[in-house]
Specification:
- The chain has 202 residues and is an alpha/beta fold.
- The protein is built from four helices and nine strands.
- The strands form three sheets. Strands 3, 4, 5, 6 and 9 form a five-stranded parallel sheet that branches. It has a two-stranded antiparallel sheet with strand order 1-2. The protein has a two-stranded parallel ribbon with strand order 7-8.
- α1 packs parallel to α2.
- Keywords: Flavoprotein, Oxidoreductase.
- This is NADH:flavin oxidoreductase / NADH oxidase family protein.
- InterPro entries: Aldolase_TIM, NADH_flavin_oxidoreductase, OxRdtase_FMN_N.
Amino acid sequence: MTPYPHLFASGRIGKLVSRNRIKYAATETNFPYADGFVSDREIAYMEAQARGGAGIVTTQGAYPDRKGEGKGFRGMMSIAEDRFIPGLSRIAEVIGQHGALSALQILHCGREGGVDLDYCLMPSVVPQRLSYFKPPRELTVPQIQQAIEDHVQAARRAVEAGFDMIELSGIVGYLISTFVSRYTTSEATNSAVKRSGNAAVS
């Protein structure tokens, strides 16, 4: 008797059925090209993860904006324009060929972004304590609205590329997580706190 009797049992997420309850989590490989396009090496890497037997295989985070303000790694994958869809489709295809569900992670790196720029974006100008983070610029309301639209369009592209599911990354200071705070009076942050049910707010 295995100590984890449900681990290898099939699982259900909505209408999707996973062959087991193991999920390969998003991992930044830096294998894509510097312009955000998927490389053959990245596709081979993702295929190897699917071949390993996980029920769900998640891509590395893909930044959703054209300026690269959400780009946090030199070799980070992009989903900012339709021209990236063909390469992303290849990843979804190789994952599915090995029986796993494919998930694409959308990741705007926020305070850790702007790797090719001289600044990063944050809800407010809070000094960065780590020297390799870029100086922050405060997001304007139109920029916040644009960031939301960028995520919407990125999700559309993920669907068109053939992925089974979409994951939004909102951890460790990435853009989404920086809006979940009680210490603000901004409309955007208050909305984020309310919708999160305070679950992510200490």
